[in-house]
């Protein structure tokens, strides 16, 4: 925690020391930690969401040549990992997901699951194995070799 706090202080000092004269002050993002570093004279900010929240938007931000932040500040939304998405299918756990939560996937009728039928939310806010997709089984049939159709 002390480390993050020091990063925050150094970050704020960097921001106020250089780019801040030009770029507007950054608003704090709820449930996040902000780390800034000086990369070749340019201030690069990185937002990291706290445990239990995931980032929506761009993780890094910098003060660009027109003295504007290159992208809007991100948000940290409830749920340790991003909300799972499975078009033409369903998954076992809707709603906010906790770290180490496992979900399983199932495709609708006439769709075939490509990828893993389960995934786990990890400490680093990612789903592993990656989320699968549901492919139309019709699409598969069209792709088969002519002599086998
Ligand atoms: C700086 O960022 C703003 C906001 O995204 C954008 O409108 C502008 O074109 C950018 N300027 C440069 C030089 O990239
Ligand atoms: C996440 O974990 C907390 C604490 O263990 C629990 O209270 C909450 O119900 C969990 N949320 C979900 C969506 O499982
Ligand atoms: C996931 O796939 C494995 C192997 O293909 C299978 O044994 C298992 O029952 C499947 N689990 C679910 C929840 O569909």
TrEMBL record:
Disulphide-bonded residues: 49-76, 107-134
Domain of life: Eukaryota
Entry keyword set: Disulfide bond, Repeat, Signal, Sushi
Span of domain Sushi: 21-78, 79-136
UniProt key word Repeat: yes
InterPro entries named in the record: SEZ6_CSMD_C4BPB_Regulators, Sushi/SCR/CCP_sf, Sushi_SCR_CCP_dom
Signal sequence segment: 1-20
Keyword Disulfide bond found: yes
Pfam families with a match to the protein in the record: Sushi
Protein name according to UniProt: Complement component 4 binding protein beta
